[in-house]
Structure formats: structure tokens, C-alpha cells
Amino acid sequence: MGTTSTKRTSSTIGLTGNLWLNREDHKFLGGDRIVLLEKIDELGSITRAAKAVGISYKTAWDTVNLINNLAEKPLVDRLTGGKGGGGTSLTAEGKKIIAQYNTIQEEHRKFLDNLENRLGDTGSLYKFLRRISMKVSARNTFSGSVSKITKGAVNAEVTLSLKGGVPLTAVVTNGAIDNLGLSTGNEAYAIVKASSVIIGTDLHDAKLSARNIFCGTIAKIIEGPVNTEVDVEIGGGNTVSAVITHDSAKRLELKVGGHACTLFKASSVIIGVS
Q1: Domain annotation covers residue 272
Q2: Residue 10: enclosing H or E segment and its boundaries?
Q3: How far apart are CA 43 and CA 88, in angstroms?
């Protein structure tokens, strides 16, 4: 949970707080995401919810995917139904999280009201928070626990167990293992660029060198003049996003609700810890 503070004038200190629920120091749920979830619950449509909160359909989907990937249990349940269609609702876990957030938000405001007159100049704190803030451009971020580490002469193979027991394999240097302090049982994050993900169909019997092959249901397709973005739900509340060429998407005849497999090399995975 975190807040930011701002200085109104040189003589008056005023606190405004942006409340976030964090998972392992990664921002998970904040006010804007809670509002989106509430609108999804109210309207039953991610398209209408996005319009109601003033964001694009694509941004709404990306946000829902990130929330579901980082949550212990999925917060949003989606029923596919074609481009821009399908019903969307909150799971029981999603409704519980919203209620808990609103309770914390109420207490948070009371805390800031009591604290406001006791603080001095918070400018240095604000600058520090700005410096340490970090955003990751990679579309795929998964949380899990280290289930296996196999060290070689130079590199090491790391296996993460994602939600639902889905295994993900990464190859990193031995030095990275030591620097990150990785060991079996540690919590860690796997980060994969969407451009590193390959989409295929009917690959269950294929022999491929890629270590990470996840098959599932196509949840979203956003077509562009050159590239097409494809999201595949692979189970356990995990979604893999890929960016492929428009021609490839057409050739594969990809459709929302259809089956597809995502592939990426172990060397394309970045491992991070909090």
C-alpha cells in the first residue's frame, strides 16, 4: 500500500493520497483500476466499462489481463463473443477485493486527515518516490515461485511455477542467479516482451525447441494495418499477449474463442525479484 504527498504552498501542507494495493512491491490495484472493475461489475461489458471510465477498449483489456495475471485468483471472468463483444463480470474474489479496497480507502483518508497538520516539507520525499518509480514496457508479467534451478558452466535454467501450477522456464546467467539471490521457493517475476511470443495452432504433437509452449483460448484480437495483437488465456488466470504480423494472423485464421498456442524461448524471459 502506498501514498504520494504534495505541497500546496510554501506555508500550507496538504496531503493527497493515491492508494495502491501491492503484490511483492509491484503495483496491483489502485483507484483507477478499482473504478474499472466496478464499472465492469455494473455494466457487464468491458467495452461499456472502458467508455464509462474514459479509456480505450485496448487499455481496458490490457489492465484486466495484468490484474488477472498478478492476482492469486482471477478477479474478472470473461465470456468471449466476437470482436468487442461477449459478457464480462467480476468473480466472487473480485467483488471481495473491491469491498476490502473501499474499506482501506476510507481508513486511508482518515489517516491523511490526521497526519496533514503534523508533517513538514514533503518535497524531498516526493522527489525520492519519483526517482524510484519504475514502469516495465514488456506486456507479459507473471508472478510465481521458483520450483527448480539447474546451473551449468555459465548459464542456469530457472523454472517458475505460475498460478494454477503452470510451469515457465527461463535461462539466465549464473551471475544473475547470485545477484538476485534466487533459490527454490523464492517468489519471482517472469517478464516477456509480446514481440518475443510466437502464435501457432495445432501444435500439441509438434516437436519444437522452444521451452515455453502454452495453449489455450484466444480472448482478444486487436488488428492493425501492420501488426495484430493476440491475447491467449492459458489457464490459472494467466494470459499471454503476442504481437504478430497482420498477414500471419489472417493466415492462421485466428478468431476470438478459438484455440491457439503461444511459444517463446527460455532465453526471451527476464527474471526479476522484489
Answers
A1: no
A2: none
A3: 8
